[in-house]
Amino acid sequence: MQLCFFPGCNTPAIRPDVERAIRASLPVLGIEVVDADNYVCCPAFGSFPSADEEAWMATSGWNLSIAEQKGCDFVVQCGSCYSSLRMGREHLMHDAEKLAHVNELLEPTGRQVTGKSKVRHISEVLFKEIGPEKIASQLKKSLQGLHGIVQYPCHTLFPSEVVGFEESPREPKGLRSLVEALGAEVDGYSRELLCCGGAGGFMKSTPEQAIEFAKTKFDAILDETQGDFIAVSCITCLMHMERVQTTLNQQLGEERYKIPVFDFNQLLALCLGFEAKQVSAICNVPRDSVLSRMVSVKPNV
Amino acid sequence: MKPQQTSARPPMKAVFGIQVPTDAYYLHQGHTWIALEETGQVRVGLDDFSQKILGPVDDLKLPAVGKTYYQDHICLSLFKEGRKASFEAPVDGVIEAVNPKVRQQPNLIHDDPYGEGWLCLVKPINLQRNLDKLSFGEANVAWINEEANRLLTFVEGKAGVTLPDGGAVVDNLYGLYPDVGWRPLIKEFFLKHLTTKVLAEGSIKDLWQDIYNTGNLQYCFNCSTCVSGCPASHGDPPLLVRNLARKVILGLEEELLMDDTPWACVSCSRCEEMCPMNVMPFEMILAIRQWQCRNDETLIPPAIVEIYKRGYTQAVGVNLELRESLGLAPLPTITNNEEQLEMFREMLMQTQIVSDNDYMFKG
Q: Which of chain A's residues have a Cβ under 8 Å away from the Cβ of B344?
């Protein structure tokens, strides 16, 4: 199966090791990754979607046409990119006038949108297309003995009619099952489904309150779980949940908050045997406590 | 065609140190002026009151020659340290010429607002009716006096600064008291018709028709589900989605235009999922932001300029060494493909928001 990889901006620009992890793991699991040549901003919700619908749709259309040209669906890691692309597609597919107008705008560029390519989140592809069993059967290393915390990307849950793939968005199972497939035990806690608070203007307009908001989540993790690491599936969650811990420690004057945060694809790539210096090279919260405890898996005979 | 009145200056009176013409010049409530030319044209400029507030500016956007503007609609802007002050047209008419000198020397607008700092020549199309809404002669003095008092109260309220009694309004007021706030100042004194037109007509507008035309909004019963679980509801000031819904439903145009909280939304869309009446509050927030941008270009996110220029808000595809060290090939980005990037820009230029604000995307 082929999927067109939509990298977004933060991943390739700031955390390309996550991109490396995705490009490494997917082929092992039977997915051929195709490049999205000349893709542009998804567009981020704070850009065209906040300014003008016409330009938003045109930008979405530009991107969607790329996957269509390649003849496959998009696979996306960033939560915002995923949600923006899906919302854009949703608007275009449910309004023939908008679709016609976007195609008029695209025409001089030699592009077209029909809707034949879908937009899929990478955790959905891993959870539903490949499945935890197949993933478990391919592992060279395991997280056995470690306790994991999962951070679901809001953008893969809500609004479930547009972006969802879980049976219930209020009781999501995908990321938990995937982390369990790598051998870890997943600890639930009271604030598991709370947003990380890292996207949009909240952190920009009132950073103090945004950090305080995230603190309640981390305090719950520390008080209620034995979490050794946090697995996220969105680049914003990854960057924000590291940044918050660093800031909180600075405020506190001690290293209370030091739970390593991984994008799930990084854990997956590590367990598939790829090297940490390529697939887990960049972090602000040290990850050695997890990397050093990964165990080798004996091949099934 | 040479403007007539640059040599013979009309009589002026000083009000709080502000020069007010008592003859020949008509004043518009948004602090532009007009003077009637022998050619049948009207000359347009900005009054000294506006220049006391803004001080000298760095740049300006004059109305396009040949284009028709209407009284009370935004027609030109001044720029100061990246901030924009827009002004409303004093009369209906076609722009026939602009002052080439002020393009070179924008400080003329400040230094000689009624003379060398004039902005454009307009062929009026509705002059008699338009004049009814402008002041003239001694009425100019009374009105600027009223405005100056309003300004002093406004500055005191916003920045806690009391200017000396009977003294003058300081030059470059915003520069000296930035706490007054740029947008509030512009709105309060230069863009009056933008926000008060609806109220003045005495009718409550169906604002939702302009902003968010979904019947479901009318079913919102203020239950607060959208607020509970909203990260930005913890902000200061809090984002209270249901309040925004109320403002839209009740047609509180002015309050909504000045409300910054829609921009704190994290886009998590939890409210969209949980709303029992299917109002789709996240879509509503985007629609409010779009409406605010339509009414106030200063709110247009700079991110769209980044996207226009290089395809992304981040510098994607330039970290080649880092990528190579991770075993990654260069990314086929649009930033590195001039031909495709140009096509993308041309497409965006066809959209209204980009073409209407093309000045943002140049350079």
A: 38, 40, 62, 109
